[in-house]
Amino acid sequence: MAREHIRSWRVGKVEITRIVEVCNVEDDIAVLLENGTEQMVFAHPWLQPHYATAAGRMLINFQAFVIKAGDRCIIVDTCIGGGRQREYDFFCNLQSQYLEDLASIGVTPESVDTVLCTHLHFDHVGWNTHRVNGQWVPTFPRARYLFGKKEYDHLMMLRATNGYHEVRHLGECVDPIVQAGLVDFIATDHRLSPEIWLEPTPGHTPGHVSVRISSAGEDAIITGDLIHHPIQIALPRHIARFDMDPSLAAEQRARFVARYTDQPALVIGTHFCEPTAGWIVSSGGQVRFEGKT
User: Fold this and answer.
1) Which pLDDT value is given to residue 3?
2) Distances (CA, A) of 32 to 50, 102, 146, 197, 233
3) Which residues, listed in sequence order, are joined to residue 132 by a DSSP beta bridge?
4) Residue 284: predicted pLDDT
5) Is the preceding omega at residue 236 within 30 degrees of 0, hence cis?
6) b/e sequence 267-284, b meaning 16+ C-beta within 10 Å
7) What is the pLDDT of residues 189-201, one digit of tens each?
8) How far apart are CA 122 and CA 126, in angstroms?
9) CA dihedral of residues 220, 107, 119, 289 (deg, nearest 10)
């Protein structure tokens, strides 16, 4: 039986399915936005009830996407992973049903041909591997894993220099893939197929990408962490705390919002709660996210 939090959209001949690992996480908007306040949330009443609570706290998901296009089966990001130790207690020893949810839509580890990581933060690479006999091994043994070369090199530099970012997940979720010879290091404008390609959206990380889909006259884009929460569509230039280069990330968000406002392209927010997909629309001089229900 399909799980309630699994949702699919068709873009021409391409099917995109959401796999949620952690749903409706509630937190203070100040965790995301510099000097964020509840009043900033209340100023955008369209955020409630799906993306914010009545008390002005944000709601976000941690999730991945399966793209089926012809005979291709592509996973975009692999969430946090179960039974891990991470920087924040909330993500430690997670009881994850990620693989069971994939199985519920007919996806087995052996059927995946490509794993694409929009960037290499811990909550986007977790199920790259799983533990077998005490060792972390690739979860998708027949897949090519696509890591951005610029992204990978930067994370390796941070690890080598004890840099400013938590990198313990690399040993579990990235190194075993490289050691197994399953990685293709790619450019930020890499094309996976005639219908699917990457758009460089640096700032959150140096090699961050979003995923564009265009098929049979229909279009969509998976944001990755260019945008974490729908409030950033209304306030794209507001500095976000999670971004490695906050000014560049803000500029990228502003360009993204300008490009897709009042356009038919389906915007799929990597961390957006339900409705996860929708459109950027303008009204009365304001811009907002209109979820597809």
Assistant:
1) 55
2) 17, 29, 28, 28, 13
3) 135
4) 87
5) no
6) bbbbbbbbbbbbbbbeee
7) 999 999 999 999 9
8) 6
9) 30
- CA dist., res. 47 & res. 38, Å (int): 12
* Buried-state track 99-129, b at ≥16 Cβ within 10 A, e below 16: bebbeeeebebeebebbbbbbbbbbbbbbbb
Residues 237-262: tens digit of each pLDDT:
999 999 999 999 999 999 999 999 99
The rounded distance, in Å, linking the Cα atoms of 277 and 288 is: 13
| Ordered structural domains, the chain, with CATH | 7-291 (3.60.15.10)
User: Which residues, given as ranges, of the chain have pLDDT below 70?
Assistant: 1-4, 85, 87-89, 93
| Dist CA 127 CA 77 (whole Å) | 8
Length, in residues, of the chain: 293
Nearest to 171 by CA among 63, 270, 81: 81
Q: What is the DSSP pairing of strand 135-138 with strand 144-148? A: unpaired
Burial level of 233, CB count in 10 A (0-12/13-18/19+)? buried
Q: What is the largest CA-CA distance in the chain?
A: 59
